[in-house]
Amino acid sequence: MEKKSEGTLAIILLALIQGFLASGAVEVQPSINPAVVGDTVTLFLSPPASLKSGSWALGESLILTWLGEQQAVFPSHNGRALVNILTGALTLSSVTVADSGVYVVQSSDPQLRASASITVLEPISNITLKANQADLMEFNSSAVATCSVSSGSSLSFLWLNGSSEVTASDRVQLTDGNSTLTIVSVTRYDQGPFRCHVFNAVSNGTSAPVNFTISYGPDNMALTVNDQNMTSLLVGSNLTMFCSAQSGPPAQLQWAFRGEFVNTTGPLLELYNVTEHQSGPYSCLAFNSHTNMNSNITSHIIIAKSPFSGSEQQAVSGRPFPLLLLVGFFFSWLGK
Question: What is the CB-side half-sphere exposure of residue 110 using CA atoms within 13 A?
Answer without folding.
Answer: 20
